[in-house]
Amino acid sequence: MVLISLIGQCFQQPARFVGCVTLSISTLIFTGFSYAETVSFPQAWQQLLQVSDQLQAKNQHVNRAKAEESAGDALNYPSLNVAGSYTRLEKPIELDLQDLNPLASLDVSTLPSAITDVLATIPSSMYVTPFTEQDVFRASLQAMWPIYTGGRITAAQGIHAAQVSESEQEFALASRELFLQLVDRYYAVSVTQTLAETQKQLVDSLSLHASHAEKLEQQGQIAKVERLNAQVALENAKVDWGKAKRQYEMAEIALARMLHVPAVNPTTGLFMLEQQPSLSRLSQLTLTQHPALKLLEAKEAQANGLVDLEKGGYFPTVYLYGNYTLYEDDSLFSQVEPDWMVGVGVSIPLISRDGRSGKVLAAKSALLQARYTKAQTRQDLSLLIDQSYRQMLQAKEEVDALDTSLALATENLRLRELAFNQGLSTSIDRVDAELSLTAVKTKQLGAKYRYMQAYAKVMAVSGQVDEYVNRTQIQGASHAD
């Protein structure tokens, strides 16, 4: 865009068009395209929302909490899994009929000889029935569905939902803190730039004064000490001007780094409202909508869920279960065992070593902690909005009061200048008047900056960031008109 603008200016010089374009391109190359981008405050805020790594990190925290909440919904569903096993037995499971009654207790000597002869011809292996092989392979489909857990599933899901709310409020808090930081850095550029310009005006004025003093000394109208006093004041002003320029450069770098741009030129200036917002409305909005209070409400909900979760350990767990055999060997045991089974199971806790009673007490303490913290936070926020509002009013009163001081300092400088030129006043009086005027301008500029900071704080604390941004846009448009 800068190159197009420069080339557009070259069209106004047809005779030197080629040379002008070459010079424009060379200028861009040698300056490294270091042109400051003009940015209004609303544009800077939108830019910051897009490029802030801090907000992106908080946003990913919200996404993680939502994903965990979605994962918690699966607690209501049954579980289904495939299980397989291979087992190597010491020996196959077998049953010898000779070990069972009545053969085990039979006295062969009491039997007739014919029967004894027949039994003797039967090998012992004929009495053995194998149930399994030595290597056992199994595969089955297993299902389990909890239908009553003493409220633990509902409590866990409630905790996940509260964690989502907590992460969202943390994002809102981070956004407001970033907004206040942007206000500080954005208007710091304008303030330091104005201070540098004010110091430059002081240097120019004192330079002219030192030149006049030198001429008056040459004409014998003033003493040498008067001329030296003017030069010392000039040198001190140059030092202050250098400091002001460095402060402006640092403020501009801080804002540019914050917005992830090479250079930036703010276009929205300082302003003051003619009618201040209502304190009662600000307090009401703060105590009903502040993210810190909602975050503590989420903490309280989590603590309540934790109490219910720990209490659920005292209740039984009822579940449905099922098993379907997918693969088994050809042993007798496998033929006897059914291919599928379903049923209802119940687990009743009697004595455990997980310290349920202590966990319940800890959860109740966490609940009380959240409630007390919330009450204290309400007091702190009420105090914060009151203090910030009064700081805003104090800054406005300072600006209004300094208008008269500014007029007085301006008139005093004019009179001291006339008196010095006529030899009726000393150089010290003239320099003091110049410094007084600069001090009043600086003090009033600082009061305007503090007003913007306090106004931004009351709007951020009460959750009216968008209204503040819209106000800056309106003020910027009015200044442009």
Characterization of the model:
The protein has helices at 2-10, 17-31, 41-51, 53-72, 113-121, 152-218, 224-259, 279-289, 291-311, 332-336, 356-421, 427-461, 465-480, and strands at 37-39, 79-88, 94-96, 128-130, 135-148, 264-266, 317-328, 340-347. With 481 residues, the chain is an alpha+beta fold. The protein has two domains: 37-71 and 155-303 and 358-480, Outer membrane efflux proteins (OEP), CATH 1.20.1600; 81-149 and 321-354, no CATH class. The strands form three sheets. The protein has a four-stranded antiparallel β-sheet, with no helix packed on it. A two-stranded parallel sheet has the order 1-6. A two-stranded antiparallel sheet has the order 3-4. The radius of gyration is 44 Å and the shape is rod-shaped.
Descriptive terms for the model:
481 residues, alpha+beta, 67% helix, 13 helices, 2 domains, rod-shaped, four-stranded antiparallel β-sheet, Outer membrane efflux proteins (OEP)
Secondary structure layout plus pairing:
Layout: H1 2-10, H2 17-31, E1 37-39, H3 41-51, H4 53-72, E2 79-88, E3 94-96, H5 113-121, E4 128-130, E5 135-148, H6 152-218, H7 224-259, E6 264-266, H8 279-289, H9 291-311, E7 317-328, H10 332-336, E8 340-347, H11 356-421, H12 427-461, H13 465-480
Parallel strand pairs: 1-6
Antiparallel strand pairs: 2-5, 3-4, 5-7, 7-8
Helix pairs in contact: 1-2, 3-6, 4-6, 6-7, 6-9, 6-12, 8-11, 9-11, 11-12
Q: Gist?
A:
The chain has 481 residues and is of the alpha+beta class. 67% of the residues lie in helices and 12% in strands. It is rod-shaped.
